[in-house]
Fold this sequence. Notes:
By secondary structure, the chain is α/β, with parallel strands linked by helices. Helices cover 39% and strands 27% of the residues. The strands form 2 sheets. A 5-stranded mixed beta sheet has the order 1-2-3-7-8, with helices on both faces. Strands 4-5-6 form a 3-stranded antiparallel beta sheet. Helix 2 packs across helix 4 (177-185).
Amino acid sequence: xxxxxxxxxxxxxxxxxxxxxxxxxxxxxxxxxxxxxxxxxxxxxxxxxxxxxxxxxxxxxxxxxxxxxxxxxxxxxxxxxxxxxxxxxxxxxxxxxxxxxxxxxxxxxxxxxxxxxxxxxxxxxxxxxxxxxxxxxxxxxxxxxxxxxxxxxxxxxxxxxxxxxxxxxxxxxxxxxxxxxxxxxxxxxxxxxxxxxxxxxxxxx
Length: 205
């Protein structure tokens, strides 16, 4: 005997099945978000930030202060700074980029081209923002933020390329712990007083 499934019966009709699948999809999305699911791009960024944080900690001296993932808002603009080092020599922003593949662009371009070759040999390209200009914007915003609270100091910004694949060779590009140590301990000296450093610490904490 053949059992027919009607809209009023106990079985699933087409409409009910579609609704069920949609509800299951919403459940999966909810569970992914609630369990902290992150995309491959975000995962690479987080891993890059952690890697550079370890490098920074290797070269920090006793009076150096490290702040990570610092959100600031000024002039109606928001940004989050990966790492900030503060000491008597100055304030240093380190923006981390963990791009795989090759990059093409100049320090004056607003956008760069990222090219990646898959395991099957296919080439994929993607447009990314120029990290040099990005960190320059962060320098401006942090300087304005501090100035708003009465701390008028010079801020320096650098970009750390985890994969060592920067297409430009300039003083704002870092690729090793030695590079970090040089810019925060042997570069320009802004001669910040201990009192000034403490003011900055309060604002960034």
